[in-house]
Structures are given as C-alpha cells and as structure tokens.
Amino acid sequence: GSAASKGRGGPSPQEALARLRETEEMLSKKQEYLETRIERELAVARQHGTKNKRAALQALKRKKRYEKQLNQIDGTLSTIEFQREALENSHTNTEVLKNMGYAAQAMKKVHENMDLNKIDDLMQDITEQQDVAQEISDAISNRAAFGDEFDE
C-alpha cells in the first residue's frame, strides 16, 4: 500500500481491484509455467520408459508435485476471482447508492420551492381554462342554426 492509501484507512476499491487483477495475472502465468513443466516431465518419463526406470520414476514424482501446485493455484485463483467479483459488486452498489442520494437531494431542492396549495390552485385554474377552451371549440364547430331554415 502507498502512503496515500494508508492515510485514508485502507486502499480504495480501484486500488484493491487492480492488485487482485495483478495477482490473478501472476497466478495465471505460473499456471502456464507449471503446465509446461508437467508436459516436460511426462515427456521425460516416456523417454526413459522401461530403459531407465529410476529416471522415469523421478520425472513422474516431479510431475505429481507440479500437479499439486497447479491444483493449489486453481483454488487460490477461484478464491481471488470470487473476492474480486464481490468487491466489484460492492463498489457498484456504493456508487449506485451515492448517486441515488444525490438524486434525492436534487429532488428535495426542486420541491422545496413548491407549495402544495399553490399547485392545487394552479391545477384548478388549468382545468377551468381547458373547460372554457373546450366550450369555445364546441361552440365554434357547431353549425349555425340559421343555415337549416332555407329550403331549396
């Protein structure tokens, strides 16, 4: 950890995620190395076969040790992946909650200048004016009665 992380009481989620990814990468490289070594020891064992049983047996023992290390690395990688995913989810949840808090504050600020009584009065005025506009529209669109009086 850097001095900046220790001063804040621990690493940031980004710093921790970066380190976990570095560790995953390092372990993946070690996996590749061990897989290569296992193949090499298997080839040595085949090469010596029944001609030199002792050398073949030693190669198989080394292969077995490498396989054990490989299994340990697999387990460690699984644990690290799980931890990284959990940290990513926690970080995402934290950001979501933070942004929801900002939105709630913004809504509160917008609403602080609104008076419910004034809003009700305004909505009544709007409804009344819409009714008046509809009455005017209806009156204009109805045919005048005088046109029906004439007979052809």
UniProtKB/TrEMBL annotation:
<dbReference type="GO" id="GO:0006900">
    <property type="term" value="P:vesicle budding from membrane"/>
</dbReference>
<keyword id="KW-0653">Protein transport</keyword>
<dbReference type="GO" id="GO:0031902">
    <property type="term" value="C:late endosome membrane"/>
</dbReference>
<keyword id="KW-0963">Cytoplasm</keyword>
<protein>
    <submittedName>
        <fullName>CHM4C protein</fullName>
    </submittedName>
</protein>
<keyword id="KW-0472">Membrane</keyword>
<dbReference type="Pfam" id="PF03357">
    <property type="entry name" value="Snf7"/>
</dbReference>
<dbReference type="GO" id="GO:0015031">
    <property type="term" value="P:protein transport"/>
</dbReference>
<dbReference type="InterPro" id="IPR005024">
    <property type="entry name" value="Snf7_fam"/>
</dbReference>
<dbReference type="GO" id="GO:0032511">
    <property type="term" value="P:late endosome to vacuole transport via multivesicular body sorting pathway"/>
</dbReference>
<keyword id="KW-0175">Coiled coil</keyword>
<dbReference type="GO" id="GO:0009898">
    <property type="term" value="C:cytoplasmic side of plasma membrane"/>
</dbReference>
<comment type="similarity">
    <text>Belongs to the SNF7 family.</text>
</comment>
<dbReference type="GO" id="GO:0005771">
    <property type="term" value="C:multivesicular body"/>
</dbReference>
<dbReference type="GO" id="GO:0005829">
    <property type="term" value="C:cytosol"/>
</dbReference>
<keyword id="KW-0813">Transport</keyword>
<dbReference type="GO" id="GO:0000815">
    <property type="term" value="C:ESCRT III complex"/>
</dbReference>
<keyword id="KW-0967">Endosome</keyword>
